[in-house]
Automatic annotation (TrEMBL):
SMART domains given in the database record: HTH_LACI
Taxonomic superkingdom: Bacteria
Molecular function, one GO term: DNA-binding transcription factor activity
UniProt name for this protein: LacI family transcriptional regulator
Keywords: DNA-binding, Transcription, Transcription regulation
C-alpha cells in the first residue's frame, strides 16, 4: 500500500480509504489509486483487514452430504450470495454424521469465520453457537432461519395428482426423522381427498430388514390398485421409476411418479421426472442477508446468535414433466359421461321424405 502511496504522492491512509470506499476521497483520486494498484498487482491483505476490522470476511457453510446433487446447488447459491456481499465461503461436509457436524462447526469457529450457514443433518437441532449462525432446514425446525416451504411443496404434488384423477397414493420418504421429508409428506397428505387411499414407505426402515437397495414392493402396490407414487426427493422418484419400469409397468400410462428438488438430471432421464423446485437463489439471499445483519449488529449479551429472517419460508414450484398423466380410468369415466350426455340429448331432425 505504501508503494502505491509513494507513486501517487499521497498518504497510505488515503490509499486505504480509496481502496475500501471509505473516507473523503475524490472519485478522480479513487480511480487513480485503483488503476495504480492494478498496475502494480496489489492484492489486499486479508490478515491486515481482519486485524483492523476484527472480521475475517469469511463465512462457513456446513452441508449434510455433499454427494447429494441437491447440496452443491445450495452451496453455489450461498457462495454467490456471499460473494455479492464481499465474503468468501469455507465449506464443510458432515457426511450425515452428528459427530462430524459438531466437529465441522467447531473447526470453522476456530478458523474465526464471521458466521456460519448450516444445513443440518436430519434429526439435529442447532442451538446457540459462539458466532452468528443461519439455519436452512424446514419451517417446522426450531431455530430455522429460512427454507423452502416444504409443506406447501407437498400440497402442490398432491393437488397435481388429484387433478389428474388419482385417488390411490404411495408416498415415499427415506427417513422419518427428517423434518424436511415429514413436512413434504405431511403436505401431500393434507391435500389427498377423504375418499383417497394412502400408504407411506420409509426406505431406510425397509432396508434395515431387507438390505440396501432392496425392492420397495411397488409392483404389488400397482396390483393392489395404487396409481400415484410421490417421493420426497428426485433420487427416490428415480428409484421408484426404475423399479416400476423393470416390473413392466408403464409410466405414466399405468402409474404416475413425482419427485422433489428438480435435480440436474431430472429433466434428461426418460421419461423426464415431474418434480417440485425450490428457489435456492432466493433462500441463499435471505439466509446470507439475515446472517450478515446478525454479524453486523451491536454486540449484546441478551441477543441470540441465531439469524432471524423476516421471510422464513420460500414457496416451491411444480415442474410437470413426462412421469405424470391423467389416470386412464378418469379419461374413461369422462368419455362415458360424454357418451351418456350425447345419447340422452335429442336426436337430430330427419329430412322430410
Amino acid at each position: 500500500m505504501s508503494v502505491i502511496a509513494d507513486a501517487l504522492g499521497v498518504s497510505a491512509a488515503t490509499v486505504s480509504n480509496a481502496l475500501s470506499g471509505k473516507g473523503r476521497v475524490s472519485p478522480e483520486l479513487i480511480e487513480r489509486v485503483r488503476a495504480k494498484a492494478e498496475e502494480l498487482g496489489y492484492v489486499p491483505s486479508v490478515t491486515a483487514r481482519a486485524l483492523r476490522t476484527g472480521r475475517s470476511g469469511v463465512i462457513g457453510l456446513v452441508l449434510p452430504n455433499i454427494s447429494n446433487p441437491l447440496f452443491p446447488q445450495i452451496a453455489q447459491a450461498i457462495e454467490n450470495a456471499a460473494a455479492d456481499a464481499g465474503y468468501g465461503v469455507l465449506i464443510a461436509d458432515s457426511s450425515g454424521d452428528n459427530a462430524k457436524q459438531t466437529l465441522a462447526i467447531q473447526r470453522l469457529i476456530e478458523r474465526q469465520v464471521d458466521g456460519i450457514v448450516i444445513v443440518p443433518r436430519l434429526g439435529t437441532r442447532i442451538a446457540e453457537l459462539a458466532c452468528p449462525v443461519a439455519v436452512i432446514d424446514s419451517p417446522s425446525t426450531p431455530n430455522n432461519t429460512v427454507s423452502a416451504d416444504h409443506w406447501q411443496g407437498g400440497q402442490l404434488v398432491a393437488e397435481h395428482l388429484v387433478d389428474l384423477g388419482h385417488r390411490d397414493f404411495v408416498l415415499i420418504g427415506a427417513n422419518p426423522l427428517s423434518n424436511v421429508q415429514n413436512d413434504r409428506i405431511g403436505g401431500m397428505k393434507s391435500r389427498i381427498p377423504k375418499d383417497g387411499r394412502v400408504d407411506v414407505i420409509w426406505i431406510e426402515r425397509n432396508e434395515m430388514v431387507l438390505g440396501a437397495g432392496c425392492p420397495l414392493g411397488l409392483k404389488e402396490k400397482v396390483e393392489n390398485g395404487f396409481t400415484a407414487f410421490a417421493a420426497s426427493s428426485d433420487l427416490h422418484a428415480l428409484r421408484a421409476l426404475t423399479e416400476l419400469q423393470r416390473a413392466g409397468i408403464r409410466v405414466p400410462n399405468e402409474a404416475s411418479v413425482v419427485g422433489f428438488d428438480d435435480l440436474v438430471w431430472s429433466s434428461v432421464v426418460s421419461p423426464s421426472i415431474t418434480t417440485v423446485r425450490q428457489d435456492a437463489v432466493a433462500i441463499a439471499d435471505i439466509a446470507i442477508g439475515a446472517l450478515l445483519a446478525t454479524i453486523e449488529r451491536e454486540p449484546s449479551p441478551e441477543a441470540s446468535n441465531i439469524a432471524v429472517a423476516q421471510c422464513n419460508r420460500v414457496p416451491m414450484a411444480l415442474v410437470p414433466r413426462q412421469t405424470t398423466a391423467r389416470l386412464a380410468t378418469a379419461d374413461a369415466s369422462a368419455s362415458d359421461n360424454s357418451s351418456f350426455a350425447n345419447s340422452s340429448s335429442s336426436p337430430p331432425e330427419r329430412n322430410a321424405p
